[in-house]
Design brief:
Blueprint (H helix, E strand, L loop, with lengths): L4 E7 L2 H11 L2 E3 L7 E5 L4 E7 H7 L13 E5 L3 H13 L10 E2 L3 E7 L5 E7 L33
Parallel strand pairs: 1-4, 5-8
Antiparallel strand pairs: 2-3, 3-4, 6-7, 7-8
Helix pairs in contact: 1-3
């Protein structure tokens, strides 16, 4: 069995959140979606499960943090600097907040951070390992061995 990761996120407005993630290039899986939850695929192995606050509260008694706090940043790899920019722009145009942190613009890496409508922090990252200075290690979110760009799976994505 192949391994996958699904990040579950509480959302205040499921319809708005589905539209937001669709605009970023995630694809809705209707088999695991309904009135209280929506599974949004980034790749064959990475998905986000959007859960209404009511559904979230059936899974845990821990409080939902306010939009202004963050506990984790989720980073996704992009195929180009242009894709990073497009994702950041789509976030801004669909209810999120663009460039919530300074833009990372290095010789070998380019990244922009944004927040979804519920304040969940995301980073869109592009890397060119062939341009990385000798002797430096890639960041923790870096590419796999023998690749010159962070890995991405080819799942059909909507237009950002």
């Amino acid at each position: 069995m192949s391994r996958t990761i699904t990040v579950s996120l509480p959302v205040a407005d499921l319809k708005a959140s589905k539209a937001f993630y669709t605009a970023l290039g995630f694809v809705n899986n209707p088999q695991f979606s309904g009135d209280t939850a929506a599974l949004m695929a980034w790749s064959e192995s990475i998905s986000v499960m959007l859960l209404t606050h009511e559904t979230w509260r059936t899974l845990t008694s821990r409080p939902i943090p306010p939009k202004t706090s963050s506990e984790v940043a989720l980073n996704v790899s992009c195929d180009s600097r242009e894709e990073v920019d497009a994702m950041n722009n789509a976030a801004s145009e669909h209810g999120g907040a663009a460039d919530i942190n300074p833009v990372e613009d290095d010789v070998f890496m380019y990244g922009r951070d944004f927040a979804d409508p519920d304040g969940h922090v995301w980073g869109a990252k592009w890397m060119d390992m062939s341009a990385m200075p000798c002797g430096e290690s890639p960041p923790a979110t870096g590419p796999t061995e023998n690749s010159n760009v962070m890995p991405t799976s080819k799942v059909p994505r909507g237009e950002p």
